[in-house]
Design brief:
By secondary structure, the protein is α/β, with parallel strands linked by helices. The protein contains 14 helices and 23 strands. The chain has three domains: 205 residues, 3-Layer(bba) Sandwich (FAD/NAD(P)-binding domain), CATH 3.50.50.60; 113 residues, FAD/NAD(P)-binding domain, CATH 3.50.50; 108 residues, 2-Layer Sandwich (Enolase-like, domain 1). 31% of the residues lie in helices and 25% in strands. The strands form six sheets. Strands 1, 2, 3, 4, 5, 6 and 17 form a seven-stranded mixed β-sheet that branches. The protein has a five-stranded antiparallel β-sheet with strand order 19-20-23-22-21, with helices on both faces. A four-stranded parallel β-sheet has the order 10-9-8-14. α1 packs parallel to α9. The protein is globular, with a radius of gyration of 23 Å.
Length: 449
């Protein structure tokens, strides 16, 4: 039995943050992963996805500007793009392991499983620790339908050697819309199948509706109230069948992509033996990210029920918070004020703070500033397909309650307002900032008029 002060299971952003912080404080730390080191974001998620999105943006911008000073046709070379993407992903496992070892952290490869409240095995090797951090992330949610094994995952999509001509995405969230926008710019015909009446729940409905219009205009078919009941193999491709759909309206495609959400990847850990309770969302934790049933265990990132949205900044932050509580005793809780969330479509959709409906349900007294900014200089000069905003300001205090943007400059604007919410910068002060001009931020004063 090898003893440690801390064992971390998972080498993504949350696990790496917790392990490195504790190792720097002098703890003897081990880290474990059965997958290549690095976690979802740099290997199978946001980083490689943004590489593909970048190519799609260049293509779309070029197409928008034809007739306005740009001539010729730019097209995505999919195999070459995937090769470029791999220049980012392939070095990650070796670099992440070297980074961890540089802190004196002992690295293990294999599946971890509880054998007691403070003991584990990794590939049959017994380990023991005073504290254990679970940072195993999430995996695709079981679809529980006939033929689900025929669908590929988002990780598979990011590594396709050839882009299929017709693609059906099951689910109407981030993954489906981002990948559909990339696929459409690369010449494919995507279909998004959402089981409920609305896509991209959690974002401002009025802006989502405009994004759906843009999506349809570039060749993406968006179907709501289309609960997939089965996937069938057909000659030359697949058929996706939907409950309640008229007979003969099944979607014929060359590839089916599972984009219907993820669940905490906890099943292989034998949590019962470790006396670690879980909910349907993940490990049951208190406000300090500590297991409610086993105080020697903490859980962070996408496998914890009690943290923030499943986003990389949130996961890394949770790892830091857990490390503080491990080292100094439970004293720090999460402060997710002003968390920004972005859907990397083209144009992109962003949100921070409350939606208008959430502000109403809280009984707040607020003013809504909203409008279409497609014709404004910052959008018109790049021939943006659509640009719009909705900003929610508390009347008495001028406090920013929420901000929502659709457009080519969403990433810039959403971070300004995330800072304003977190730092409690009132809208009256935002209007007075002398932002560089011409930029999207210099439009803020006009949005708040």
């Amino acid at each position: 039995m090898t003893d440690f002060d801390l064992i971390v299971i998972g080498t993504g952003s949350s696990g790496t943050a917790a392990a490195s912080r504790c190792a720097q404080a002098g703890w003897r730390v081990a880290i474990v992963d059965e997958l290549p080191y690095g976690g979802t974001c740099p290997l199978r998620g946001c980083d490689p996805k943004k590489v593909l999105v970048g190519a799609a943006e260049v293509t779309d911008w070029s197409n928008r500007m034809r007739g306005s000073g740009i001539a010729g046709q730019i097209a995505i070379d999919w195999p070459e793009l995937i090769r470029f993407k791999r220049t980012f992903t392939q070095p990650v496992p070796q670099e992440r392991e070297a980074y961890l070892r540089n802190f004196g952290i002992e690295t293990y490869h294999g599946a971890a499983r509880f054998t007691g409240i403070s003991t584990l095995t990794v590939s049959e090797e017994p380990l023991r620790a005073r504290r254990i951090v679970l940072a195993v992330g999430a995996r695709p949610r079981p679809l529980q339908l006939a033929g689900e094994e025929l669908a590929i995952t988002s990780a598979d999509f990011l590594d396709l050697e050839r882009l299929p001509a017709r693609i059906a995405f099951i689910g109407g969230g981030y993954i489906a819309f981002e990948f559909a926008h990339v696929a459409a710019r690369a010449g494919a015909a995507p279909v998004i199948l959402q089981r409920g009446p609305r896509v991209l729940p959690g974002f401002e409905p009025s802006l989502v509706d405009q994004l759906v219009e843009v999506s349809k205009s570039i060749g993406i078919e968006v179907r709501v109230n289309s609960a997939v009941s089965a996937i069938e193999k057909r000659p030359g491709g697949f058929a996706v069948l939907c409950d309640g759909a008229p007979e003969g309206s099944s979607v014929e495609c060359d590839q089916v992509v599972h984009a219907a959400g993820r669940v905490a990847d906890l099943d292989q850990l034998d949590l019962k033996t470790g006396r670690v309770e879980r909910t349907n969302k993940g490990v049951a934790v208190n406000e300090y990210l500590q297991s409610r049933s086993n105080p020697s265990v903490y859980a962070v990132g996408d496998c914890a029920d009690g943290g923030g949205l499943p986003l990389t900044p949130t996961a890394a932050y949770e790892g830091e918070v857990a490390a503080v509580n491990l080292l100094e005793g439970n004293r720090q809780t999460l402060n997710l004020t002003g968390l920004a969330s972005i859907v990397y479509t083209i144009p992109s959709l962003g949100a921070t703070g409350l939606t208008q409906e959430e502000a109403r349900l809280r009984g707040l007294d607020f003013t809504v500033y909203e409008g279409d900014s497609t014709s404004w200089y910052s959008s018109r000069r790049v021939r943006a397909r659509r640009s719009a905003y909705k900003i929610i300001i508390e009347k008495q205090s001028s406090r920013v309650l929420g901000a929502h943007f659709l457009g080519v400059h969403t990433e810039e604007l959403i971070n300004v307002f995330a800072l304003a919410i977190r730092a409690q910068i009132p809208a009256t002060l935002l209007k007075e900032v002398l932002f560089g001009y011409p930029t999207a931020s210099s439009d803020i004063a006009g949005m708040l008029e």
